[in-house]
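Blinded run. Sample ID left blank on purpose so nobody reads anything into the name before looking at the predicted structure. Input follows.
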Amino acid sequence: MRRQVLALVTAAAVTVPLALSATAAPKKAPTFRDYPKPPVTGKQIADRAISFSEEFALRVTGTPTQLLATDDLVAELESLGLTVQVETYNGVLQAVTATKKGTSKPDELVVMGGHFDVLPQSVQGVYDNGSGTAMVLALARSFAKVKTQRTMVFSLYNGEEEGALASEEQAKAYAAAGRKVKAYLGFDMVGIAWPLGKAATDDNCLCMWRGARDPQFDQLLAEVTHGFLKMPKGKRTVSIEGRNVRNSDEASWASAGFRTLRWAGMRTASDYPQYHLPEDTAATIDEVAGGRQFFEAGLRNTLLSAYYTAAAIDSGR
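Blinded prediction complete.
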């Protein structure tokens, strides 16, 4: 009998730790605060915006120069290890689209995009929209090696200057296919934002908008930019503008029924003095921003805001 009692005591001593380990608290799910900092500097974004715009000046939709610009974008996105395809619509419209598959929810998408074409009179179009093109490339580079729950999609369009035509076709195709797009984040004319070297006016800010039916994004933007990144709040610094009054490729996605966000520097396109004019060059950007270093700083702050907002959407917000 004594041997039986000892055997029972010994067995109990072995099974108690096993029972405790089985009820251990589950690992906390990561939030956007846990994502690594984006590795791309403001200088790198500025340099890419300028070099792309100067090399492919007059990249008007459907021209040989625009097609060369498409090849350049494909090569860079492929170098990041992303899956890249050029989606063609109506013969001449193009969406250069790169994807990085998600881990646990690969059928859900976070799309980031902007246009790379110009009007003929814009010539180089460094700000409109070499800056947005370089920002999408910077986001692709920042997420390329990051493990995300959802699939990240990076799209660069022609046909925007004629009416956001390529993005309209892509957004309609995604809607028709029932694609689960959590949000589209758009970038057009970014970087002359916060900070600026000259005295800012009420027209200046790192400005953020959301779709008309997406008021929940206001709180998310505030949590990311003001709460986490500690960026200042105000019309001349970093401003959450509410309902979108700008009109670019994000409007295509909103019309197709998807949630949207938009980043830009300055509140209206016409606040930029060379909007759709021949002197949309690096020199003009430097003059308006008060120096190249301020353009670079504005680009980096835009990247931080957009990257962590995308991370927050990816992590379930």
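Unblinding after everyone has recorded impressions. The first helix runs from residue 2 to 22.
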